[in-house]
Write a structure and sequence with these properties.
The chain has helices at 4-12, 23-35, 38-47, 52-61, 113-126, 156-173, 185-196, 209-213, 249-258; strands spanning 89-91, 98-103, 130-134, 178-182, 220-223, 229-231, 235-238, 261-264, 270-277, 280-287, 306-313, 316-323, 328-331, 334-337. The strands form 3 sheets. It has a 6-stranded mixed β-sheet with strand order 1-6-7-8-10-9, with helices on one face. It has a 6-stranded mixed β-sheet with strand order 5-4-3-2-11-12, covered by helices on one side. A two-stranded antiparallel ribbon has the order 13-14. The protein is an alpha/beta fold. It contains 9 helices and 14 strands. The protein folds into 2 domains: 17-74; 89-337, Purple Acid Phosphatase, chain A, domain 2, CATH 3.60.21. The radius of gyration is 32 Å and the shape is elongated.
Length: 338
């Protein structure tokens, strides 16, 4: 019979439960595990005479699917989705012949004022159907990673005011032109600054590019960096982040990266690359700049002022690149100059 101590110990000792054997037992055990918090899971393991690690293995190996406590949301309660920034802004121009003007790399306040006046006079006369600002509209000098002139650090708002004035002029002279702003690497410079160096300002009401540029005020659509504008599913316009040493090399690299047809800014040069194979004709273009060619932060840059017009009819397109040389260019049999 044993000693009184043995009898007392046997009275209060509960032998561990055997491992579940049938499917029903495993379903019951799995439900207990799934419904318990960590402390409850530890207690359940103690009841079966196993440690917590063994309990986790039991649950993963038993073959009973996990049943969430909450049922999935029904179709009348749509699940929020994250914006797919790699999906291009789709622009369908319809069946009529239309003209898209593409300007970029003004780098305000480092724009060339004479060149800007010349381009604006031209756009006011031809009245394009669309105007795409293809990135680096402001320089965002103050948040660059390069050495900076301390006297310029407090002038970000006045730099932005130069862009506001430009948008205001364009709103006045191009009242019926649909306008789209595409972020460039310098707009993205601002986003990087918020994320890496000034996260405390990330939730301010006005810190985004549309907010800083007041795009709603000027009725300008916004397209984020590298998303691009895809016109008639055949021509992609984006700022780009590739810069090769020679003109047209970057256009070729954009073709290799994206395929299809398209146009990028960023290089501050003009250039074109054409490709024809069994799948058809392809072309990519580089789109000049409208900033000063004599900046104080680089010597003798290989840059050229200019802009482009793209004409669309259905899925057909024709690109006219307009380099501005010595303050003038030729278009439509006319010399345009100040």
């Amino acid at each position: 019979m044993g000693t009184p101590e043995d009898v007392a110990a046997e009275k209060y000792f509960t032998p561990p439960e055997p491992k579940p054997k049938t499917k029903e037992e495993w379903i019951t055990w799995s439900a207990q595990w799934d419904e318990s918090d960590h402390a409850g899971k530890v207690k359940l393991c103690e009841e079966y005479g196993i440690n917590y690690g063994s309990g986790r293995h039991w649950r993963s190996d038993c073959g009973i699917p996990f049943e969430p406590k909450e049922k999935p949301k029904t179709l009348d309660q749509p699940i929020p989705t994250i914006s797919q920034v790699n999906t291009p802004y789709l622009l369908n121009t319809g069946r009529d012949m239309i003209t898209v003007a593409v300007i970029g790399d003004t780098h305000n306040p480092y724009q060339d004022n004479d060149v800007m006046r010349l381009v604006e006079n031209f756009l006011e006369e031809i009245q394009p159907d669309y105007l795409i600002y293809n990135g680096d509209i402001n320089d965002f000098y103050q948040v660059s990673v390069f050495a900076k002139d301390p006297a310029r650090l407090g002038q970000l708002q006045s730099d932005l005011d130069v862009t506001h004035a430009m948008f205001s002029r364009h709103q006045l002279i191009l009242p019926n032109t649909k306008k789209i702003m595409v972020d460039g690497t310098h707009e993205h410079r601002w986003i990087n600054y918020l994320q890496k160096q000034s996260p405390a300002t990330a939730n301010l009401r006005v810190n985004t590019i549309p907010g800083l540029y007041e795009l709603d005020k000027y009725n300008i659509d916004h397209v984020t960096f590298e998303r691009g504008v895809l016109i008639n599913k055949t021509f992609l316009i984006l700022h780009g982040d590739i810069a090769s040493i020679h003109s047209s090399y970057t256009a070729k690299r954009h073709y290799e990266k994206h395929g299809g047809n398209g146009m990028a800014n960023h290089t501050h040069r003009g250039g074109s690359y054409f490709k024809h194979d069994r799948f058809g004709f392809k072309a990519w273009f580089e789109n000049f700049c409208l900033c000063s060619l004599l900046p104080d932060y680089i010597q003798n840059p290989d840059w050229m002022n200019g802009f482009s017009l793209i004409h669309f009819k259905d899925n057909h397109f024709y690109v006219e690149q307009l380099p501005i040389v010595s303050g003038s260019f030729i278009y439509g049999g006319k010399l345009w100059k100040l």
